[in-house]
Amino acid sequence: MDIRELNRRAVRASVDVVAKVTAEDLGRPTPCEGWTLADLLAHMIAQHRGFAAAARGTGADPEAWRVRPVGDDAVSVYTEAAEQVLEAFAEEGVPDRVFTLPEFAQPGSGREPTFPGTHAVGFHFIDYLVHAWDVARSLDVDFAPDPELVEAAWPIALAVPDDERRLRPGAAFRPSVAVPQDASSFDRILALLGRAVA
């Protein structure tokens, strides 16, 4: 299946979870160390906008990735940003475009990191499958993604480097953690990406 369709489904699932957030929830802690739910949503919104810009050739602009504090209208702002990235990814030729993704830069490299469109959409897909779980965990509600999404996410999760980059402030993923032998496939993905599911 086209990675863009898988991503669309993951983003729609995240929109459904975020729709449960109220203004009173924004101070809740999240699985992302040191982040409140407001911080997490601000990050997710910024990433949607940044990836949309990258799909349209302007990903090198730092303003496209700027994280802005969220207010009481966080749900509507999130939904708008989600629509923005889905529209950008749906444009003709996106899989063949080159995406500039500054957050993947190696310190001291002095060059902007670029990726094929298909890979970049894959990065976005795994990020939002996991961040939807983060939001659900913060709200103490269930999140069970479609098995087809989980199956597609497994090889992407395996390919995410488990190195010192995960220790940087604001890193989307933390070092991998152990899981029980009987853990579900999705729990294994979460553990690979540093989420304690127990």
Automatic annotation (TrEMBL):
Domain (Mycothiol-dependent maleylpyruvate isomerase metal-binding): residue spans on this chain: 8-136
Originating species: Streptosporangium carneum
Pfam families linked: MDMPI_N
Top-level taxonomic group: Bacteria
Single GO MF annotation: metal ion binding
Protein known as: TIGR03086 family protein
